[in-house]
């Protein structure tokens, strides 16, 4: 399409219904709410659904109506994808692997019988049992069971807004000593930066030498600069947009600034502010970018073959090291790294299924502190630079997620927690150690299949809590 010759922000906004992206996709697609409403929803299927979350078992049959997930993946050029990550409007996330494996509908599930099973492909469903699904027109992605005891309810993310195939794609970074930490924004996060909320997108008309096209964009307003970047009061004399080639343009945070997709494939974003267009936008410099200097401390656990928590290091698809941490050794030799962090998130299963807010104050070790002591990690910047991805594993295998960017470990404050104060806004529930209003903290040890949980600062219980945490993998790029 060539270089952008002109840009104009069109009037009016629309809402994102579903964004499909990822490194395995040839192109990304945004379905607006209106697009989803207009899709021909011709597939109608019965699904057997099994759930035993929080020791509350349920087996039932649900009818979905919509379109095949394979048709959506084909549209983005990811027909061969074998794994998909789903995130819903309320923050719930799930990862479904082995997409091309056989999954079934068991009509006798409620009786514990597997006779009469039928093959089922994943369905993007807009209706449940003939009625509009929760969060309509955002769909529910429905999956069959791999076996009669397969707990497939864990994968039914109601109100799906985002599908990721392959690895997450980065949009731009924000770095500098005016920030509490560096930020790396994914393409899926761009829309959440909009002043009016994460559903809103604007239409941006791009003019090229011989054609024009309209692409999505978002406005970076006060909410972005204050809440995301932590700049209050906002100062414009230290903010610069930086291109991939290193060219810098001054940015006035109080003016109209936008990020926009630079082409119809929705793979890269540009920056527009004060009349300047930067189509090879790399990030924002806020203050000075300094690399930490000083001697590198190496501290690794003494145990070589077993422990309560492990860290695997993977390079070129091969495990090159595995470190085992016992609880006793962590308390003895890493006591100087103990931290206390507060997390507040939404839990769907509380308050007799109505949901509610839960606050946890955890004590333990920041994952980034442990990683920074390993010989494979030269400095903290390495963790967030894109040179590292991570995956967390639990002993019950409930949360085995696809790899995520290392910068999430810093931005969301991942904590290996061994004791916690837990409280629920809607009233005392199982595991609470304090009431919501109490000022005093009452810590209790973690009880589970391991001595640990991992908490992070995300908005939903899934993925803010990893119960029965037993280890993690570091994938060095």
Q: How would you portray this structure in words?
A:
This protein has 8 helices and 33 strands. The protein has 477 residues and is mainly beta. Strands 1, 2, 5, 6, 12, 15, 16, 19, 20 and 21 form a 10-stranded mixed sheet that branches. Strands 25, 26, 29, 30, 31 and 32 form a 6-stranded antiparallel sheet that branches.
Which secondary-structure class do the elements indicate? Answer: mainly beta
Number of strands: 33
The main pleated sheet reads as:
10 strands, mixed
> In what range is the share of β-strand residues?
35-45%
C-alpha-based Rg, rounded: 23 Å
Query: What is the overall pLDDT average?
Result: 91
Shape: globular
The protein's oligomeric status is single chain
Low-confidence stretches: none
First-last Cα distance: 31 Å
Output the number of helix runs. 8
The proportion of residues forming helix, as a percent range, comes to under 10%
Secondary structure layout:
Elements (H helix, E strand, L loop, with lengths): L5 E16 L7 E4 H6 L4 E9 L6 E11 H7 L7 E6 L4 E5 L6 E2 L12 E2 L3 E6 L2 E2 L7 E3 L17 E5 L5 E6 L7 E4 L13 E8 L4 E8 L2 H7 L10 E5 L4 E3 L6 E5 L7 E5 L2 E3 L2 E6 L22 E7 L2 E8 L1 H7 L4 E10 L8 E11 H6 L7 H5 L3 E7 L9 E2 L1 H5 L3 E10 L19 E2 L7 E3 L5 H4 E2 L2 E8 L1
Parallel strand pairs: 1-12, 13-22, 23-33
Antiparallel strand pairs: 1-2, 1-15, 3-4, 4-9, 5-6, 5-12, 7-8, 9-10, 9-11, 13-14, 15-16, 16-19, 17-18, 17-22, 19-20, 20-21, 23-24, 25-26, 26-29, 27-28, 27-33, 29-30, 29-31, 31-32
